[in-house]
Amino acid sequence: MRQARPIRHQEAARKYRVRTSVDVIRYGTTREPKPHAPLLTRSRLRLIIAVAVAAATLFCVTFVTRSPLFAIRGVRVTGLDRLLPDEAAEVRAATAIPAGTNFFRMSRGRLEAAVRRVPAVAGARISRRFPNRVGVEVAPRIPVSVVTTATGRWEVDAGGVAIRPATRDQKLPEIVCAALTSVSPGRRIDAPGVAGALAAARLTSPGARVKPLGIAKIEVDQSGDMCLNMCDSVAIRIGQAEQLETKLALVRRIYDERPDIGAEIESIDLRFPEAPACLPRGTTKHERESRKRAGADASAAREHDSAPSPTAGRMEIHPDQLSQGNSEPETDKPLGRGGSGRSRRGRSHRTGPPNTNEERAAGDAAELRP
């Protein structure tokens, strides 16, 4: 007689038979099926997220660039108070934006270039004001001088750019240019000597840090040599723009120590600041021509002289040491009025011995007879 199996073995056999029968009916085999792969894998999830982000971005860009909510509705222009009415109207016309222009698609560089094409405008700054406003800040050109040429009188800024035709009531330093040059608004005047004359006007204007000089007019010849016509009718020849600050400092020193120098001196020659010279009032025409020839000879000699003067740059210049056309090397009377001393008849002298070839060449030519 067979021995009965334990209860636990019977229960396990029964479960096995049931499972086997079910597997045969469902799968046709007694082997257990493999588990299915998950439908949402990590790579599929990444792909779905990328597609969603791209669709959202495309929708936002389309909405922002085509929505009427971001169409520009107004342009505010500031800085027009220093422009003439017609110039202000020209700036407003340049800042006109077509209707329906999108706030984000507007080109700030193109708008700034359109404003800068106005001759009276030096620059412009464009700013956006969300969601549909634009601000334009205009920097106008500030006139610092009036340049008179063969084509007329022009207001000029510090960079030498012509702004507009000048009016008769302009209270600005005047520069008279003898060179023939064409001038058009918005372009730089490239005549020789104009840049140096503008620098001289800037250094002597009331806005400078130093005490201003009373300059009525600055004349520039065709070669670029400058002459300062002072308010007291003294003509100061400063030549080219080299050592300009040194020459102007010498002019300022002369007027600080001798404010009434215009009563006795007609012209001062500072083309060579290490050897200044002056011409007293009442000099005859012959003496002026002789002095002019002497100055021309000195200039020619200086151009051909290759050895610099040993005293240049370190000689102390004093206004009382200006060589006059009718003065002696030794005198007790200064350049001002009054005072007693010996006669001023004699040979003109300079502040030191002739150290350069041009001074030696012009030694005899500079002698003036009363």
Which helices and strands occur, and which strands form pairs?
Blueprint: H1 7-27, H2 42-66, E1 74-78, H3 85-94, H4 108-116, E2 121-129, E3 133-140, E4 145-149, E5 152-156, E6 162-165, E7 174-177, H5 194-203, E8 215-220, E9 226-230, E10 235-239, H6 244-257, E11 265-269, E12 277-280, H7 285-304, H8 357-361
Structural commentary:
- The protein is an alpha/beta fold and 370 residues long.
- It folds into two domains: 68-140, Roll (Ubiquitin-like (UB roll)); 145-361, no CATH class.
- It contains eight helices and twelve strands.
- The chain has helices at 7-27, 42-66, 85-94, 108-116, 194-203, 244-257, 285-304, 357-361; strands at residues 74-78, 121-129, 133-140, 145-149, 152-156, 162-165, 174-177, 215-220, 226-230, 235-239, 265-269, 277-280.
- The strands form two sheets. Strands 6-5-4-7-8-9-10-11-12 form a nine-stranded mixed sheet, with helices on one face. A three-stranded mixed sheet has the order 1-3-2, covered by helices on one side.
- The longest helix is centred in the N-terminal third of the chain and has 25 residues, at 42-66.
- The protein starts with 6 loop residues before the first helix and ends in a 9-residue tail after the last helix.
- The model is unreliable at 306-319 and 323-370 (pLDDT under 50).
